[in-house]
Amino acid sequence: MKTLAANRQEKRTEISHDLIVKTVRECGEYWRRRGIAPREIRELAAELEDHMSEAAKVGKSFEQSIRSAREWAEDQAEDLAPHTSVSEHLRVWLVSVLTIFSIVLLSLHLTRSNLIVEVHAEILMFAVILAVVVRVSSSTVFPFVIFNPFKRKGIFDYGDYLSVATGLSLGVMLSVVQRTTVDFLPTIELSLSHSLTIVGIAVALRLTPSARKLLLRIRTASRVRIRRLRCLDSSRSGGGNTIALLKTALNKDRTLLRLIVASNLLIAFGWMLSLPDPLGITNLLLASATWLSLSSIYNAVSSHRPLT
Amino acid sequence: MSSELGNERSARLMTAALDICLLAFILEKERYGYELISGLEAEGIRFVKEGSIYPLLRKMEKDGLIAARLAPSQDGPARKYYKMLPKGKEKLLAWSESFLEFTGKVSGILERRLNIEDARSESAGETDRNLA
User: Fold this and answer.
1) How many domains is chain B partitioned into structurally?
2) CB contact under 8 A, A50 and B54
3) Among A66-70, A86-90, A291-295, whose mean pLDDT is lowest?
4) Which residue of A has its CA nearest to B35?
5) Which residues in B have their CB inside 8 Å of a CB on A?
6) Which of A60-74, A93-107, B76-90 shows the lowest per-residue confidence on average (mean pLDDT)?
7) pLDDT-based confidence at residue A279 (cuts at 50, 70, 90)
8) What does the pLDDT look like over A215-274, one tens digit per residue?
9) Residues 6 or more apart from A307 whose CB is under 8 A from it?
10) Within 10 A of B75 (CB to CB), how many other CB atoms are there?
11) Closest residue in B to A56 (Cα–Cα)
């Protein structure tokens, strides 16, 4: 019986330009989530890109050269400390909490001329779920999210995971709002299936030959632009010919997420307006929290810039 | 099986001596990461993990043994070149002396007690007898 190690040795994936770009992108994302400083990420990415390009020139396979993207990313990150301190994290959360409550207090003052906040268990649960979603979506808790073979094949993208997370958190929020009239789970299911439908459409588009042709045209255009910019880019801090392709991929993610966020927001506000007390404090609090959650998730996606 | 064990032992020995080898290559001239890997491979050293040299280079840079600079490349991304610093040269000499002294001692022990050719043929004979 062949061992796993023997199978790994036998597997020989040719190193293409596309594979280099995807590997650098995945590793860059992993390093960013580990909290490594952007300057160090740029150097690590340049090193990896150069290593793979040189290995390809001498005919080495992907497995001989780096074994696996995940292994490479973890090994290189081992001796590098995160640049964000605990106090920095706490500051971000503190600012977020204060922002929500400032909005709530202001709304209270304007609508009811009092400053009494009723904190329901559902609201606290929503805040906890929101915190977990944002934290998980920007950490290395699930490396499979970063080093995913389906993503490498171009079937899934970063935006997809976050879109589903957005749908889920919005579903919980809507459930809280509608708790008095509608069952809890169906609302989450509705919002989640709405997000999944959009992700499904995006995946289908990526797999359609005409859509693939369009993506290829974008990549070719990027390569032409890269050749022109190579001298400028490479004289900076490295990763020169990968930056433009990463930007293209990033824009694709953002478009999908914008679609999700916009449609979810429309549903959320439509739903809220249909309630008997649209300006109720719970709704205002939840609306503020929703905006904050969506912008947090959006920021998590927007900061997918390992090399820029 | 014995080859696998041999490879594993070689890898362990190599890990212990990798910093000396890298410094020796950088002493010759300024070099970049993959050039160091190719140089070591040309000397017959096979890596289990090619990427293992980069954290080591970063550590040596941090310790002030070598200096790094990014330079534009003709046919690819910017490349990080490493050059030797006086402290690195000192360390290389000190480490090399102790390493050569140690390997000399180990060689002495083996040479005085073990004739490798005889031991091999003896071992092969035993295997044949067991198979028969």
Assistant:
1) 1
2) no
3) A291-295
4) A54
5) 32-34, 37-38, 49-52, 54-55, 58-59, 70, 72-73, 76-80
6) A93-107
7) low
8) 555 555 444 444 443 433 343 334 444 555 555 555 665 666 666 666 666 666 666 666
9) A24, A28, A41, A42, A45, A239, A242, A243, A246
10) 10
11) B34
Domains in chain A: boundaries: 13-77, 116-302
Phi, psi angle pair for B70, to nearest 5°: -95, 130
Q: Dihedral of the CA atoms A39, A44, A46, A49 (nearest 10)?
A: -150
**Contacting residues of B for A235, CB less than 8 Å apart:** 72, 78
Stretch 225-254 of chain A: residues touching chain B, C-beta under 8 Å: 231, 233-242
Task: Using alpha carbons, select from A267, A258, A260, A259 the residue that is nearest to residue A287.
Answer: A267
Interchain pair B55, A47: CB under 8 A: no
CA distance A112 to B21: 75
CB-nearest to B73 from A43, A234, A236 is A234
* pLDDT at residue B58 tops 80: yes
Q: Can you tell me the distance from the alpha carbon of B58 to that of B52, in angstroms, rounded to the nearest whole number?
A: 11
Longest dimension (CA), chain A: 77
Q: Give the CATH number of the domain where residue B106 resides.
A: 1.10.10.10
Shortest alpha-carbon distance between residue A138 and chain B (Å):
25
Shortest CB distance from A50 goes to which of B51, B55, B79? B79
Phi, psi of A237 (to 5 degrees): -100, 25
pLDDT digits (tens, 9 = 90+) for A183-229: 555 666 666 666 666 666 666 666 666 655 555 555 554 444 444 43
pLDDT for the residue numbered A131: 67
CA neighbor of A113 nearest in space, from A279, A264, A290, A253: A279
Return the number of CB contacts < 8 Å for A and B: 81
Q: Provide the residue range defining the domain that includes B30.
A: 2-131
